Amino acid sequence: IKGDFDMRTREAMLKGGEYFADEVLIPGTGEQSYLYLTTTRSEEDYEMPPKEADQLSEEQQWLIRDWITAGAPWPDDQRVAMIQKKFAEGEQVATSKALSEDWQNRRYEAEKLWAYRPLDPGKVPDGMHPVDFFIDAKLSAAKLAPAPAADGQQLARRMSFGFTGLPPTPEDVEKFSNAYAKDPDDAVRDYADRLMATPHYGEQFAQHWLDVSRYADTAGFANDYARPNAWRYRDYVVRAFNDDKPYDDFVREQIAGDEIDASDAAAQVVALADLLAAPVYGSSWPSRIPFPTSHPLWAGNLPTRASEIAQRLAGYDAIFALGGKSLITILYSEGPAVPPGCAVFQLSADVRDLGRTYATRLSVVGDIRRSLEALLPMLATATAGHAAAYAHLRVGAVDGLRRRRAALTATAAEQFGAPVMTPLVAAQQAMRAIGPDIAIVDEAIATSVHLRGFLDSAWPRQYSFLRGGGLGWGMPAAVGCSLGLDRAPVVCLVGDGAALYSPQALWTAAREALPVTFVVMNNREYNVLKNFMRAQPHYLSTQRDRFIAMDLDRPAIDFLALAQALGVPARRVERAQDVAAAIEAGIASRTANLVEVVISAG
Predict the structure, then answer these.
(1) How far apart are the first and last CA of the chain?
(2) What angle do CA 212, 218, 220 make, to 5 degrees?
(3) What string of DSSP letters covers 377-409?
(4) What tens digit of pLDDT does each residue of 126-152 get?
(5) Residue 545: what pLDDT?
(6) Three-state secondary structure call for residue 493
(7) Which end of the chain has fewer CB within 10 Å, C or N?
(8) What is the pLDDT of residue 180?
């Protein structure tokens, strides 16, 4: 059978495949037909399906045998028409990424698909543990009796291998056996606690997650190059199990990517800043802001031009860079981001990021949280005699934060009455509605810099931003963020261009009934791409102010119709005074909704 076996028509089946040719289906032969032998796994070299777990049931095998014996009848045109009608009435489901349209666009009734059915936990009898109930049901279905109860020595070995992957010591076996003879429940509980308290517990259970995430120290197969820093992720997973990290935090940290956030070091960074009264700057292109933006020492995110970063850091004698992605530059400008005479000290768990772009006075490889935990007591001793000076700097930081925010608010007030809403005003009004406690997923490049200026939250994980430059991340990320936060409200800010890359996230949010408010900042163009080109004055497009394929106005995109077509209610806002109320109403609705905010390109 093998390749080239076509089952779409009777004639094609009679023709056969690569092997056996016209002997695959011989009408009237029943159990002698190769089609029957292979589908019932009776022919060792040509078993179908390939997985033993997918073997056909006896009833299915009989149906194939009887159909062949009856002459392999094929439905007539009337029967085919009825099948096609049923096919059309079902729900289209893309079941694979196969190229064949017949395979990819099959239709089913949604309620019969396991993926669309709600989980059924089953009814567990009173007084029975769900795990015991599950195992007992499987044993009963297989007509098997439970294994006899293990004695103390056997159980000690099973528990040790199960929890740590290692055999128990003779002393542990003896200790457990004696305790088990006196009180089995207490003995099992105490021994399990002791095994889970060892580092080997994390090593044993991390392997299951690492298998699912396809972890490997090398790339494997034909291009088997080494991954010299892959061990960092392996050790992170091991620590997560040993530290009993909450599952939602575990998943979010792997999605986020920033080192401070991934190492859960926000508290240690705050303690470091407080101890030294040192201003804290965020990365120029942050996937997260792992520092409370309401803290007086928060100095905002760095700009993305090297020359502007150097201006912001001018006057500092030293920089302590935490992580490897602190000084990312997007647009070219003359000169380095680190001003002359400023020493760079860097701490990162990734050796490849140390001194990668700028020379460092000292580079240290290490986990940020654990390294700072070791460093803080030493710094406290070293700075003990300078308390008054640091207190003065902290007071100055409070005043500085107040002045910066007042200046930003004043600028927004000046622009409030503009004929078309400016990105700064749109960001300010959006933050008025969002407040300090609602998670933000931001992919609105036109307003993102302004939005970060208005962040004012004690929650170091409020804000998420795309790590790379590829568009389309924000809307599906907001759906995942709400699910990860136990279906909490999320506000997703997205540009009109980025919204065109993954609008299907609206349908997912509606189907899952997630309280995500999608705010489309619509300037009717790929403004960020135009600005990238404008930053290069030698470009011909910049000189002529003519940019190819970067305008989204002919025809204009109807985001309200797009959202409503995907099951999401939507509204359009053109006046600055209406933005906050529209977003507040969206958040209060506790359902998926979209707010289109019309802004200027400036």
Answers:
(1) 65
(2) 80
(3) HHHHHHTGGGHHHHHHHHHHHHHHHHHHHHHHH
(4) 888 888 888 998 999 999 998 888 999
(5) 80
(6) strand
(7) C
(8) 94
Adjacent-strand bridge partners of 282? 301
pLDDT of 59: 81
Hey, what amino acid is at 329?
Answer: T
User: Do residues 389 and 376 lie in contact, with contact meaning Cβ atoms separated by under 8 Å?
Assistant: no
Residue pair 346/354 in contact by the 8 Å Cβ criterion: yes
Nearest CA among 368, 294, 362 for reference residue 325: 368
Q: Alpha-carbon distance 112 to 107, whole Å? A: 11
What domains can you pick out in the chain, each with its CATH number? 10-74 (no CATH), 152-197 (no CATH), 265-398 (3.40.50.1220), 423-598 (3.40.50.970)
Q: Which residues pair with 347 in a beta bridge?
A: 322, 364
pLDDT of 97 > 60? The answer is no
Q: Give the type of residue at 495.
A: G
Residue with tokens 């099992």: 188
Residue 66 amino acid letter: D
Give backbone dihedrals phi and psi of 527, rounded to 5 degrees, phi first.
-65, -40
pLDDT at 1 over 70: no
User: What are the angstrom distances between the C-alpha of 8 and each of 4, 12, 109?
Assistant: 12, 7, 21
Distances (CA, A) of 317 to 342, 381, 393, 456, 570: 5, 21, 16, 28, 51
369 CB-side CA count, 13 A: 13
For residue 323, the model assigns a pLDDT of 82
One DSSP character per residue, 166-210 reads SPPPHHHHHHHHHHHHH-HHHHHHHHHHHHHTSHHHHHHHHHHHH
Residue 458 makes CB contacts below 8 A (sequence gap 6+) with 292, 294, 295, 436
Count the neighbouring beta carbons within 10 Å of the beta carbon of residue 211. 9
Question: What would the 3-class secondary structure string for 301-339 be?
Answer: ECCCEHHHHHHHHCCCCEEEEECCCCCCCCECCCCCCCC
pLDDT tens track for 206-225: 999 888 777 888 877 666 77
Q: What angle do CA 187, 192, 193 make, to 5 degrees?
A: 100
C-alpha–C-alpha distance, residues 521 and 443, integer Å: 10
pLDDT of amino acid 420: 94
DSSP character string of 409-443: HHHHHHHTT-SS--HHHHHHHHHHHH-SSSEEEEE
CA-based radius of gyration for the chain: 32
b (16+ CB within 10 A) / e for 246-274: eeeeeebbeebbbbbbbbbbbebbbbbbe
Pair 512, 573: CB distance under 8 Å: no
Find out whether 594 and 584 touch, Cβ atoms under 8 Å: no
CB 309 within 8 A of CB 330: no
Least reliable range by pLDDT among 98-107, 189-198, 407-416? 98-107
Looking at residue 255, what is its pLDDT? Answer: 46
Residue 465, strand partner residues: 442
Contacts of residue 99, defined as CB under 8 A and 6 or more positions apart, other chains included, come to none
Whether the CB-CB separation of 504 and 566 falls below 8 Å is answered with yes
Task: Write down the pLDDT at residue 256.
Answer: 38
Mean pLDDT (whole number) for 228-257: 75
CB atoms within 10 A of CB 512: 13
Tell me the sheet residues that pair with 301.
282
